Amino acid sequence: MNNILLTGGSGKLGKAIIASGYFSSILSPSSATLDITKPKRIEKYLNENTIDAIIHCAALARMSECEKDPAKALHVNSIGTAYLVAEILKREIHKNNKIRFIYISTDGVYPGIRGNYSENDETIPYNKYGWTKLGGECAVNLLSNYCIIRTSFFDPSHIMFDNSAIDSYSSKVPIDYLVKAIAIMLKEKYVGVINIGSKRTSDYKRYKKYKPQIKPCKLIDIKKNVDFKMATDASLNSNKWERIKK
Length: 246
Fold this sequence. Notes:
It comes from Candidatus Saganbacteria bacterium. InterPro entries: NAD(P)-bd_dom_sf, RmlD-like-bd. Pfam families: RmlD_sub_bind. The chain is about 40% helix and about 15% strand. It is built from nine helices and twelve strands. A six-stranded parallel beta sheet has the order 2-1-3-4-5-10, with helices on one face. Helix 1 packs across helix 6. The longest helix has 26 residues. It is globular and about 55 Å long.
């Protein structure tokens, strides 16, 4: 890939992508230069730059903020993604330019109750963040050369909380693992949705590996202090990914 456009380059995942060294040529414009909620700016940027692939990380990802301001979350996560997709579709139709598009979605598009969700399971998000990311997925599905990555990640070097639930399960992956997975899927010809996750385990066990002093608690205790719905078991079936990465 000659030129890769990265949206959300100032975010945690975006910064990790830039620093990784996996990607030879990344364009990471500021949100002022490429505001995905403004179609004219998207059009201008794509007209002025030759783009071979896009890694779309830009999102309103704070769940509490999505709950407090769902209109903003919708505008960024769903509508902004749709604006970006619309401009790419124009190039597919008129220039036969099938840009490779990687969309970073979330395990939150699944119900988050029974776990072990596969790509073909029903998508009924459990909070507003998940719904807005699912809206973005709907737009991305219109493209010819796309990969929707459903995942959840964390930074082992920045686990800011002191307690974690022993009865909350997920398949969260370290941020560096996800960056490498994105690099692999960027080169793959795979089109569609893919789950990228680790082995199912409790959040407490996962974080304790990297922060030994973390204390166990119950999910109900965490829920008392947040204003958004949380999953009981958001673990993923990543068999498809395991086959691809070999």
